[in-house]
Design a protein that fits this description.
mainly alpha; Hypothetical Protein Yqey, Chain: A, domain1; Arc Repressor Mutant, subunit A; 2 domains; about 75% helix; globular
Length: about 150
């Protein structure tokens, strides 16, 4: 499970005195713990890895937005620090599907439910997220679904 891999990597980074990896692993564990607390009151994914992947994907997205803002603001040292965190976080994410594989999945779902227009985008996205949330970047998938239904 991904959660155990992160904990093991945190211990390993602490032993190696790697401050960057230790700090990033702590951030990941804190975000996962916060999501666990939120999941107690709301609907949570059935699979623990799904929950962890959602948290990690959100963290990567936040950091990419920060990198963009720091770059525009003329703060390359902060952008580099965020990029280093993205590298560590992405090492725990499962391999993402390529655009071609994603398009094939979309076409399969589209045929399965009979989606013909952009009005059906929500249904296609719901099935795509339900079945493949851990292996897809949902923002890219959204653009591909919209293109496929246009």
């Amino acid at each position: 499970m991904i959660r155990e891999r992160i904990q093991a990597a945190q211990i390993e980074a602490m032993k190696a005195r790697d401050a960057q990896k230790t700090a990033t692993a702590r951030l990941m564990m804190a975000a996962i713990k916060n999501r666990d607390i939120e999941a107690r009151t709301g609907k949570s994914p059935a699979d623990d890895d799904t929950l962890v992947v959602e948290v990690l994907q959100k963290m990567v997205k936040q950091r990419r937005e920060s990198i963009e803002m720091f770059t525009k603001g003329g703060r390359p040292e902060l952008a580099d620090a965020e990029a280093a965190e993205v590298t560590v976080i992405e090492s725990f994410l499962p391999q993402q599907l390529s655009d071609a594989e994603t398009t094939a999945l979309i076409e399969g779902i589209k045929a399965e439910i009979g989606a013909a227009s952009v009005k059906d985008m929500g249904r296609v996205m719901a099935l795509l997220k339900e079945r493949h949330a851990t292996s897809l970047d949902m923002s890219k998938a959204s653009a591909l679904v919209k293109a496929a239904l246009s």
